[in-house]
Amino acid sequence: MGWIEHDYRDGDALATALANLLHATCRDAIDARGRAVLALAGGRTPFPAYRALAAMRLDWSCVVLLPSDERCVPHDHPACNVAELRKAFADARGVVIESLTTEDGDPARSESHARRRLAVYPGPFDAIVLGMGQDAHTASLFPGAPQLRDALDLDNALEATRIDPRPLPPEAPFPRISLTLSRLLRTQALHLALTGQAKRDVLQAARASGNMARHPVAALGEGQATVHMHWSP
């Protein structure tokens, strides 16, 4: 539908605003349908918002959280996104946190596991929170990955796919499981959280290029949900 930019004075203000938006989304979804389902990115930027959200009053037993993508590592590995989500929401008693990977992180079994778990939640997400890398990847939709073309295909009915970044990021050199673009866009609300002028410049260049293979984040504008870009210096 389009993009709306929200600028904040600093990271704390971004985190507070995003937490409040997600809390309202959960509350409204629970009131309307008895359950809220959110897909949440890893990375440094959104976690202060997650911790703030976890401290808010909510019927957490009616909330399901799952990663938007996951590194194929064991769940006790420091690079595991779902382990970090569990820590961030430790105070949200009763919340359900799904994983896209098996306990041992095996890539092939994790891909099948992710598709089975996503099938339990066939409706649109109530909200998705994503980040973006300096190479314009979002979730784990990395430019140059051999699976990227299929992952970006809106006619692809598969909801999750293995992604092998090329080259592997040196800070996290692992295969990934990612939601496909078609699943990412099936949401009531889409939030992209960024910090720093460099990230903003990358996003602007990506949107201007329209080249989704080179700048996968540009594909977020292909959906029906407005993309809310939350930015702080």
From TrEMBL:
InterPro entries in the cross-refs: 6-phosphogluconolactonase_DevB, 6PGL, Glc/Gal-6P_isomerase, NagB/RpiA_transferase-like
Domain Glucosamine/galactosamine-6-phosphate isomerase per the UniProt entry, residue ranges: 10-226
The protein's name: 6-phosphogluconolactonase
Organism placement in taxonomy: Bacteria, Pseudomonadati, Pseudomonadota, Gammaproteobacteria, Lysobacterales
Function field: Hydrolysis of 6-phosphogluconolactone to 6-phosphogluconate.
Pfam families named among the record's database cross-references: Glucosamine_iso
Stored PANTHER family: 6-PHOSPHOGLUCONOLACTONASE
Alphabetized GO MF terms: 6-phosphogluconolactonase activity
Record EC number: 3.1.1.31
Keyword flag Hydrolase: yes
Keywords noted in UniProt: Hydrolase
UniProt catalytic activity: 6-phospho-D-glucono-1,5-lactone + H2O = 6-phospho-D-gluconate + H(+)
GO terms (BP aspect): carbohydrate metabolic process; pentose-phosphate shunt
Pathway in which this enzyme or protein is active: Carbohydrate degradation; pentose phosphate pathway; D-ribulose 5-phosphate from D-glucose 6-phosphate (oxidative stage): step 2/3
Organism the protein comes from: Noviluteimonas gilva
Protein family membership: Belongs to the glucosamine/galactosamine-6-phosphate isomerase family. 6-phosphogluconolactonase subfamily.
Presence of the UniProt keyword Hydrolase in the record: yes
